[in-house]
Structure formats: structure tokens, C-alpha cells
Design a protein that fits this description.
The protein is an alpha+beta fold. The chain has a 5-stranded mixed sheet with strand order 4-6-7-9-8, covered by helices on one side. Strands 3-5-10 form a 3-stranded antiparallel sheet. A two-stranded antiparallel sheet has the order 1-2.
Length: about 450
Amino acid sequence: MVNMLLPIAGVFLATFLVILFFSKKYDYNKETKIYTKMLIVNFMYSLTCIIGYLYAKSIGNEIVIGYIQKFYMLTMLLLIVYILIYNLNLLNFSKQNIFRNLIWMIYAVFGSLTIILPIQVINYDDILDGGGLAYNIVILATIFYFLCIVISCIYFLIKNKRAFSKDIPFITLILLYLIGLFVRKYFPSIMFENFFFSFMLLIMYHTIENPDVKMLNEITLAKNELEQANQIKSDFISSMSHEIRTPVNAIMGLGSLLLEESDLNNCRDDIKDMIDSSQKLLSITDKMFEIYTLEKQPVEDINIIYNPKKEIEKVIELYLPRITDKNLILNNNIKEMTDVYGNLTVLKKVLSQIIDNAIKFTSKGSITIHSELENNNLKIEIEDTGIGIKEEEIQNIFTPFKKTSATKNSSYSGVGVGLSITKSLLEKVNGEIKVFSKNENGTKVILSLPIEKRERQS
């Protein structure tokens, strides 16, 4: 039974490859599709080798053995045909389909002759072999296909000098086959074919382009993130270019006008516009610095005791002139609250940003501010009757430099970082922000900040 060591090893290797390959999800391209068929045919081929030998040495019916041997030889030829077709796919030339059809026609001819013609069964001692016309036809077909494989490998190497790894499995198979034939001349009982094919497929497993689905998903995700980052960068450059150029041009233009004026009393409005433009420019740079600071440093944990109603109304008071200038109605629904212990700095920054947005994007109607304590959270609702946001765009409003379609090509100023800063600040103190909006139907923002109820020490 020593002569069966290689066939048994071949079956185990074929089984291992089938389990290994089909246990993972693959992107089934041309290579992996053919490789899948080769694995299945090789498994059948290896199993037939063992079954045929065991049957021959136990029962020994020559007619049945003859049919088993024919099936064994046909599966071997089929495997070689798939190797040749795989090589043709690698060459990727225009008349590939014609050659593929020709290969299958030749296989059909060889296969038909193998089935029709008689086979001689050689079965004695530990030896199981074949002879006769059917056997010789298969030998002839094997030589023909191997020659075609060698030619295709050489052509592929010439055409793709750097892709030598693709031909390693087939060159290895042919060399092993030649060595096997030489050894078999002196040790006729050795059966090597199925092990050599399994070994070739093992090498091939490491050379085919067979990225699994997980890897493809990771690559796709990384690609999408890169494209998104690139788009954000483009939006940022475009937005910053516009936002910085506008106040700078205003300052330069007004400065030129001032140089031409002899009486500065006539220039008060121009000076006021220059100061306003300078403040806008300063606001932009402040926000950019704040984004950098939030990314590099944690928010200072400076918690103090304060009264929410009083502090919220102080922030609102800063924006009353702008609310009045736009003829907006302010609805103050802030409830009386006890003193709390929390981060007042974050409260002022995020509330200022949301009120600023509400005023900016509301041309008529009202702004309603409601606040109350809810368990261990300070809840603030800011609702306006402004331009609103499309539902599909709400998920993007916290992305830096990402503007909504309603504000992108309009006169609304800003670089699109306010809400991003707001969300980052809240997350760093374990707070949260929720936005509810409909296009042209206003926006409602809910802020939640963690607090502790405290009494002031007298």
C-alpha cells in the first residue's frame, strides 16, 4: 500500500483546498471561476483514483475497472483543459473565444474516442494501469494539451514579463509530471498524477487574484472615505476662498476710498463697514483655530455653579439687535430653574452658534427658545421658521465645510463649520445635539448638556 501514499495525500490536499476556498466569500472574477471548477474536477479526479484502486484490488471486475479508468482519464483531461483555458484568459487576446471553442471541440473528440475505444486493464500485484486504444488516445491528448500549455505560458511570459508567478503552478506541474514518468519507468506501481495536480492547485491558490469580499469592502470603504475627504477639502478651499476674499476686498476697497477723502467725518459709514468686514474675517480665523484646538486638545473641564435661565438669557441678549433688525419675533419660553453645576463655557458657545444660525437662516417669522431641566440634563430647544433643511441633507450638516444645497449658492455667509464645532464640543462633555427640519419649513434644534443640581454656597 506504499504506492497509495501519494494518491491518499492528493485526496487530503484536494479536500483541504475545497474547504479552504469555499469557506470564504470571494469576488468571482474570471480567474476564480475557473479555479473553482478546477477544484471540483480535481476532487472528483483524486477520489476516483482511490475508489478505482480499492475496487480493483478487492473485487477486480475488469469491465467495471475499465469504466472507472475511463472516467478517471476523462476527468484528468478535463482538468488539463481548464488549465489551458485559464492560460488563454491570462493572455486576453481578441480571438480568445474561437480558441476556447476549438479546445472544447478537441476535448469532445478525444473524450468520445476514449469512451468508444477499448481499454486494456493492467491489474496485478500492487500495479493498476491501463493500455489499449482508449489509453493511447488519452496519452496523445495529454501531450497535445501540455504542449499548448507550454506555448501559452511562454507567450504569456513574453507578453507580461513581470507576471511570472502566474505560470509557476503549470511549469511546476509539467516538471513534476516528467519526473513522475521517469520514476514510474522503474517503479510502475507508483501513482502520482492526482497528487501533482492537487499540489499545482495549492500553488495556484496563492497566485490567483482572489480578494475576498471582506477585503473588497474594506478597500471600497477606504476609497469612499478618501473621496469624501477629498471633496471636503475641495469644499473647504472653495468656501474659505470666497469667505476670506469678500471681507478682504471690502477692507481694501474701503481703505482706498478713505485715502481719497479729506474729511474723515464723511467716512464714518465706510469705517464701520471696514470694522464689520474685519470682524467677519476674525470670526472665520477663530472658527478655524477652534476646529484645530478641538482635534488636538480636550475641552477644559471647568465646571461651575450657574443659573441656566439667567445665563441663557444673557446669550440671547447679545443677539437682540440682530433679531430686531430683521423684524423677527422672539418667543422666550425658558422656565425658572434652580442653580446647576456644569460646563458654562460649552453652554455659551453651542447656544450662541445655534441662535446665530437661527437668525441667519430666518428672514421672517419667529425664533422660539425653550429650556428646562430634565433629570440630570439641561435641555434647550431652539426653533425657527427659516429656510429649513432637506431631510436627506440633515445627516451631512455636522460634516466640516459641508453646506446644504439651500445655502451653498446663496448670500448666506459662513464656512460651514459651526455645527461641526457645536457637535464636537457637546460630545466632549457627554452632551448631544438633535436636528429636526423640513425644507422651507423651519428647523428645530435640541441641545442636551449634562449637569448636576447644586445650591450656591452663601
